[in-house]
Design goal:
heterodimer; A: mainly alpha; 2 domains; two-stranded antiparallel ribbon; 4 strands; elongated; B: mainly alpha
């Protein structure tokens, strides 16, 4: 039983995981939402005072009712319209989803938001927090009844095939022994690490990038027992790219083509 | 490693992008109707992305692509495999005028049960007040217990100043928000399998019964009706509707042995609970206005007969609305 993700098996037999949001992230999103309701409520109150300043009693009453309506409807309407997201959830990268991965229904949004009045009891979502700790998927009471979960919806960038492509001469290519050793001795995890280093190279600080590629290159050279002459005066990053080109392409294919 | 990752990414990426565009479009406009060709294309793209995910899962080389593709397939799965009703548009007017009365009638049994709980409390409150002298201080709210009904009526009818002068709207807003909060709480207590809802309804009934018995026993029935009817004729049914919604929720949680899965029972109940919540909140807005602007005026400012008449008209209109509105689909 994992609390990190909900695993869903599709009728096609494909298994995918929805990463669950923990109490910390949800608390931050709730804080943002609270601040949003407060800010919008203050703006409304100011606007109403400006419009109905000559009738302070009515202005205050309208402000109180609007603020109350806003606090009740904020989560409900936004989650309905934005398919499981409020402003706070958008900023933190969370989304309310059906616990079976299907489309979120309005009835689910209504129920989970109406039950908020129980979850917040007695203060600071203590009831909801206790329910989250006791539930399998970090669900508060409203989620349990509405059959919803809150997942991390932060979208990563789509994979870029060009990031792994190298047009430069690969001094390791055409050497069957080295190619075989590389394929045998470099684990999928190490290859994955190298792919990540290349894909994210521009996001890594230059000094750290040099250090990372140096360590990866040293590891690969040692693992495959590559003669120094083959990588002399080749930058570490290029060594890593050359190694990946060997590891990630099928044997016998010369270079990467589309 | 069997998978030629760069080649795989280059060849499949256009299909993933197309699927992503489709999903963005559907999420932006969930009411979009697809042609058969479009639906087939979406289904094909989903299956292709699923197959790609299966291939990449067998190769642990690229966690980023895998995570990204899992998220994409997850989104597509939600669209392709959804068999429930399409998402409804948010239409507040239709919700109140159509969905609310229909849900009310559909769940009439739960309403009757909620009324029964309220009435049981009312009966107990009345009896307790009439047979036990000490009950008055215990059951009645402090502001009502401090004066006998006759003293209060005398106070109200001889008062020369309006105690709500300049704050009537604020008082009204306070009543609206407070009553709606309590009613929604009563509804939400349905999650306790209806036990919390029943207790809250019963308790409200006890207080109501005690107040009514106190005034009737003191010969102030006319004042009582003139005071309570203009807002109570709407407020009390609204509280009962909150109880009704709580019981609907409880009934879905408990099930009735018909074998329907919990999530399906909750999905059906959730629609009615939402409509009932919207309806009762609207009724309580009206009740708040009436309580502040009408109920607090007594004779000689407003004749009791007029207040009782207004209450009766409201009651008839409410009954007509709940029994007739929304009959056309």
């Amino acid at each position: 039983m994992s609390r990190d993700a909900v695993t869903i098996r599709t009728p096609e037999g494909i298994v995918f995981a929805l990463p669950l949001a923990g109490p910390g992230a949800r608390f931050v999103a709730w804080g943002v939402d609270l601040a949003c309701v407060g800010a919008v409520g203050s703006l409304l109150a100011t606007a109403i005072r400006g419009l109905l300043g000559f009738q302070p009693d009515i202005a205050e009453a309208v402000g109180a009712v609007l603020y109350f309506g806003l606090s009740i409807l904020y989560g409900l309407v936004l989650e309905w319209v934005w398919r499981g997201q409020t402003l706070g959830k958008r900023l933190v990268g969370l989304r309310v989803m059906d616990e079976e991965g299907r489309r979120l229904q309005p009835s689910q949004v209504v129920v989970r938001n109406l039950l908020r009045s129980i979850d917040v009891l007695p203060i600071f979502y203590l009831v909801g927090g206790a329910a989250m700790l006791a539930s399998r998927h970090w669900q508060r009471l409203g989620d349990l009844v509405a059959c919803t979960i809150v997942v991390r919806a932060a979208r990563t960038d789509p994979p870029d095939p060009d990031a792994l492509r190298s047009d430069k001469y690969n001094s390791l290519r055409g050497r069957p022994r080295i190619e075989a050793r590389l394929r045998q001795r470099i684990s999928p995890a190490e290859a994955a690490l190298a792919v990540q280093a290349i894909v994210r190279r521009d996001a890594i600080e230059p000094v750290a990038r040099v250090a990372i590629f140096r360590r990866l290159a040293q590891r690969f050279v040692a693992a495959a027992e590559i003669e120094p002459a083959l990588f002399e005066s080749v930058p570490d990053e290029q060594v890593v790219r050359n190694v990946l080109e060997i590891v990630l392409t099928r044997p016998g294919r010369a270079g990467v083509s589309t | 490693m069997i998978l030629d990752l760069p080649r795989f990414l280059a060849s499949e990426r256009p299909f993933w992008s197309e699927l992503e565009e489709w999903l963005d479009r559907l999420e932006t406009d969930p009411h979009r109707t697809m042609s058969l060709e479009e639906a087939r294309r979406l289904h094909y793209l989903h299956q292709r992305a699923s197959a790609d995910l299966a291939r990449i899962q067998s190769s642990a080389a690229e966690p980023q692509t895998r995570a990204w593709l899992e998220a994409l397939v997850g989104r597509a799965y939600g669209e392709v495999h959804e068999t429930r009703d399409r998402t409804h548009r948010l239409r507040p007017l239709r919700l109140f005028l159509h969905d609310f009365p229909r849900a009310f009638r559909r769940r009439a049994g739960a309403f009757a049960l909620a009324c029964g709980m309220l009435l049981a409390g009312t009966a107990l409150g009345s009896i307790a007040l009439l047979v036990d002298d000490g009950a008055r201080e215990v059951v009645l709210p402090a502001e009502l217990a401090s004066l006998s009904p006759s003293e209060r009526v005398h106070d109200e009818e001889t008062r020369r100043t309006d105690r709500l002068q300049g704050q009537r709207s604020r008082f009204s807003a306070m009543l609206m928000t407070h009553n709606t909060r309590i009613a929604l709480f009563c509804l939400a207590l349905g999650v306790t399998y209806g036990i919390g809802t029943a207790i809250l309804l019963f308790h409200n009934g006890v207080v109501l019964g005690a107040v009514a018995a106190d005034y009737v026993a003191d010969g102030q029935t006319r004042f009582l009706l003139g005071w309570l009817l203009p807002h109570g004729i709407v407020e009390l049914p609204a509280i009962a509707i909150a109880g009704q919604a709580g019981l609907v929720l409880a009934s879905a949680l408990l099930g009735r042995g018909d074998g329907t899965p919990l999530r399906e029972r909750l999905a059906v109940a959730g629609r009615d609970v939402g409509a009932l919540a919207a309806g009762l909140a609207t009724l309580l807005l009206w009740a708040g206005l009436m309580e502040s602007f009408l109920s607090q005026h007594h004779e000689p400012v407003l004749p009791y007969a007029l207040k009782i008449g207004i209450g009766a008209v409201e009651g008839v209109l409410l009954v007509l609305f709940l029994s007739l509105a929304g009959r056309r689909p």
